[in-house]
Amino acid sequence: MSDSLFDRIGGETAVNAAVDIFYRKVLADDRISGYFDDVDMEKQVAKQKGFLTMAFGGPNNYTGTDMRKGHAHLVERGLDDSHFDAVVENLGNTLKELGVADDLVGEVAAIAETTRNDVLGK
Amino acid sequence: MPKIVFEDKHYQSEVGESVLDCLIRHNVSVNYSCKSGVCQSCMMVAVEGEPTPGSQLGIRETLKRQDHFLICACVPETDMLVAVPDSIGSTFEARVISLDKLAEDVVRLRLVRPENYDYLPGQFINLTNSEGVSRSYSLASVPELDDFLELQIRRVPNGRVSGWVADTVEVGQVVTISQPSGQCSYMPGREDQPLLLVGTGTGLAPLMGIVRDALRQGHHGPIHLYHGSSKAEGLYLVAELTDLEEANDAFYYQPCVSRGELTETSQKKLRSGRAADLALQDFANMDGWRVYLCGREDMVKSLQKKVFLAGASMQDIFADPFVFSERVSSEKVDSEKVDSAKVIQKVDAT
Ligand SMILES: Cc1cc2nc3c(=O)[nH]c(=O)nc-3n(C[C@H](O)[C@H](O)[C@H](O)COP(=O)(O)OP(=O)(O)OC[C@H]3O[C@@H](n4cnc5c(N)ncnc54)[C@H](O)[C@@H]3O)c2cc1C
Ligand code: HEM
Predict the structure, then answer these.
(1) Same domain, B105 and B210
(2) Prediction pTM value
(3) Residue B148 C-alpha to ligand 1 middle, in angstroms?
(4) Which of B158, B177, B234, B285 could bond B229 through an S-S bridge, CB–CB 3.0 to 4.6 Å?
């Protein structure tokens, strides 16, 4: 078997490189930045790492139920498919900026896609 | 919901409730201050049960490994047996050397540095008043340069600890302080990196420690210090900082006044505007910078985000929000409601 997606992307090093770029994109994106306004940045960075590790197919303990619970308060504030798409778009652009090959970017997007219903509480 | 066991009694927690809130709700007397996972005065040890990862952020590695955690930041996922640890319960006695008025409402408190008391400039200590109430204050002194500990304390109206310092503490008196903690300090390495330091009010205290420490360690990149106050009278140590600027080519000092016009008689150096805004105006691109932000919580949190968006890397941003204690716990709930209402508005508008 070939290495996991997480290893092929570059593992934890890639997560650390991506977190600044990704989070900067999210905060600068008017479509979604409102959801991140009142979260503490330092705690948020730890969570972003959790998010990226998960999206890169890396080791994590999050279950679908966790994703549901973790975003339920955002769904109450109107989180919908358009916001989800915006996050996935920022994620893709982050990876491209880091020089990750297109097929790997596609695999990451596919993993993110599997969480859509849980994140949006559908 | 998980149960909390503390001093042989069981307490049932409620949904979403932190260990601290659960104990407070049951009228258990415990030490705490900021309730935001910053000041570390509520640290306990988990004898049984797992502390959540978020409740161990910013705690020293050695203590983390010994299951220390902040009870205000831990919404328990399992039953927990918690205890007040002896190690961090250790306090120091320090004699007051001097008390000087630096500005209308700011005093400088200098204490004898206890033996073997190691700290990094910019870290903070918890000072306990005669009634046993503790509050955090930042260290403006530098151990290699000063043989005393220096705190700069702004008097808050009805402040239990700041008022006590201003009104009752006297030279020669012995006060109780904790070990130092906090991550907002100068770390050697990358000596040519540009540094930006922004502080409001007594947010200057840790920054003075950090600037003097950086210069002492031979930092040669430019060091820009912005000190903000609403009125010119609120600025302090202006002469000392101006002298430090003249003595060091790489150090630039900018006092800022956010309210009221500057008059012809105001000092030449002053600029009108908020320290945070002026700094961002002056340095649009913060890529590669190291940034220190101290003082009012709202200023620190918003500038933290702005310098990050301007290009500074998250790991190069050190922030010390001076989170204060709410007197009534319902105050906090109300302000949180307001915050989420704001977010809804914002999101709807986009
Ligand atoms: C890491 C850290 C470092 C700090 N360093 C310093 C420092 O170097 N110098 C310094 O002066 N302070 C510093 N503080 C703030 C300090 O710890 C206390 O919060 C402050 O002195 C007030 O405590 P008190 O007991 O006097 O007032 P309290 O008795 O706690 O408060 C009295 C009343 O005033 C309100 N209140 C308190 N502070 C404010 C405020 N800033 N604005 C509006 N209302 C307020 C309270 O909610 C309460 O109703 C720091 C805080 C932290 C967390
Ligand atoms: C693409 C699929 C997504 C995945 C895999 C994902 C994953 C995660 C993870 C792992 C966390 C951390 C939870 C924790 O450790 O506490 C988290 C938190 C968060 N997510 Fe997502 N997320 C996704 C989509 C979104 C979207 C679309 C938004 C909003 C636009 C969003 C906003 C947030 C916020 C604001 C938090 C922090 C919540 C808080 O602390 O209050 N997420 N997410």
Answers:
(1) no
(2) 0.78
(3) 23
(4) B234
